[in-house]
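Good morning C.,

I know you're traveling, so I'll keep this short. The sequence:
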Amino acid sequence: MEIKLHYVEKGSGEPLILLHGNSESSSYFIHQISYFSKKYRVIAIDTRGHGWSPRGTKPFTITQFAEDLYDFMKDRKIEQANILGFSDGGNIALVFALNHPECVKRLILNGANLYPEGVKEKAQLPIMLGYKIAGKFSKKYHRALEKKEMLGLMVDEPNIRPEELDKLNMKTLVIAGTNDLIKEEHTQLIYESLPMARLVFIKGDHFIAAKCPKAFNRAVEKFLNA
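The tokens, ready to paste straight into the viewer:
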């Protein structure tokens, strides 16, 4: 492995891996770690260049993050896990499942998208503006380069075709807020493109796991127990 990912681990039993969103860290899942560790071996990972994980030298892409997860699981001899990904973490989980389906028992996609156009325009426009501004200063200032890389994940990625999802045969929960920054029809598209999926909307915005943990955890628990 090129880098060692920082992670928080709690509990024992079947592995449940948590993947946070853009510019966040494993601390986003504080309510899920405490709740699910009663039954599962919960592992919340800081993605490359996020939280306490180093940036390394490899590409700063969703595909690379998915490969980092594969290396992480191999290093810890985890053959298969339930994977819950939020936002960019959901996109990582989806790419990981497409590339390594044998490693995923059940998949939980919270506020994921297949391509940038799946994000509502009012949310995507500030991201694109910030990306352009950071790009202008990226050659002169390292912080601007870091910002450009981080925002670039949402401007240029992911790039998943809906028809690709047809080959994913693991049970999948597609879960989003009723006022999510992902378009409702896009979340519906993800659900309809997956052969073994169920769809749940929870009243709230993009950050339902943090802001509505009771409802979110109940929905995830029900899915894992089904």
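Safe travels,
E.
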